[in-house]
Design goal:
The structure holds two protein chains of two kinds. By secondary structure, chain A is an all-beta fold. Chain A is 0% helix and 46% strand. In chain A, strands 1, 3, 4, 7, 8 and 9 form a six-stranded mixed β-sheet that branches. The model of chain A has no long low-confidence stretch (mean pLDDT 95). By secondary structure, chain B is mainly β. Chain B contains no helices and eleven strands. In chain B, the strands form two sheets. In chain B, strands 2, 4, 5, 6, 9, 10 and 11 form a seven-stranded mixed β-sheet that branches. In chain B, strands 1-3-8-7 form a four-stranded antiparallel β-sheet, with no helix packed on it. Chain B is globular and about 40 Å long. The chains are: A mainly beta, B mainly beta. The interface between A and B is medium-sized, with 21 and 17 residues.
Chain lengths: 109, 114
């Protein structure tokens, strides 16, 4: 089965740029979606199809995907961005399935 | 705007079957080319995909749960459902229903305990 690997934690100071990676075999050939989850809340889609933003998501959130790594970039980080972030892909290599990364805790220092 | 709401018992005994229903509003399950998913999150842990049902009724399940999972759809009620059999404490989690495009229910905590 397909595996997505994320760093358990990333820390950044307010106003700086946070980059959260998601590694997978040839992930660049797949569409990657990113979710933000705050404590006690359902996940919220912040980036879909590698780099598109849903309506209402600030431009500070952006994504890229190439080779074996996808990246979620959060510019001008704010205290309110502190959350868990999950990457997700559809894997059609065998039975079609949904795969989530293990999640990254973003801490705003 | 599509909205989803999970419902079902919050407490299930070990070895029994967990049953949840997701009610969809603001859109029809039978219209559009969408996958309707169940996802769970054990306390303090990450997201785990359980399975999904296509609007046509085709289903796909997480191989690690496949032997215990059934997802079905009732288009007349605009609902889809999850059944997970032979539950243990390891199945204790917040269960979410979701539709591709970022539409999720608020989640419901199911505890497996005698």
């Amino acid at each position: 089965s397909y595996v997505l690997t994320q760093p358990p934690s990333v820390s950044v100071a307010p106003g700086q740029t946070a980059r959260i990676t998601c590694g997978g075999n040839n992930i660049g050939s797949k569409s990657v979606h990113w979710y933000q989850q705050k404590p006690g809340q359902a996940p919220v889609l912040v980036v879909y199809d590698d780099s598109d933003r849903p309506s209402g998501i600030p431009e500070r959130f952006s994504g890229s995907n190439s080779g074996n790594t996808a990246t979620l970039t959060i510019s001008r980080v704010e205290a309110g961005d502190e959350a868990d972030y999950y990457c997700q892909v559809w894997d059609s290599s065998s039975d079609p399935s949904v795969v989530f990364g293990g999640g990254t805790k973003l801490t705003v220092l | 705007q599509v909205q989803l709401q999970e419902s079902g018992p919050g407490l299930v005994k070990p070895s029994q079957t967990l049953s949840l229903t997701c009610t969809v509003s603001g859109g029809s399950i039978s219209s559009g080319d969408y996958y309707w998913s169940w996802i769970r999150q054990p306390p303090g842990k990450g997201l785990e995909w359980i399975g999904y049902i296509y609007y046509s009724g085709s289903t796909y399940y997480n191989p690690s749960l496949k032997s215990r999972v059934t997802i079905s759809v009732d288009t007349s009620k605009n609902q889809f459902s999850l059944k997970l059999s032979s539950v243990t404490a390891a199945d204790t989690a917040v269960y979410y229903c979701a539709r591709e495009g970022g539409f999720w229910g608020q989640g419901t905590l199911v505890t497996v305990s005698s």
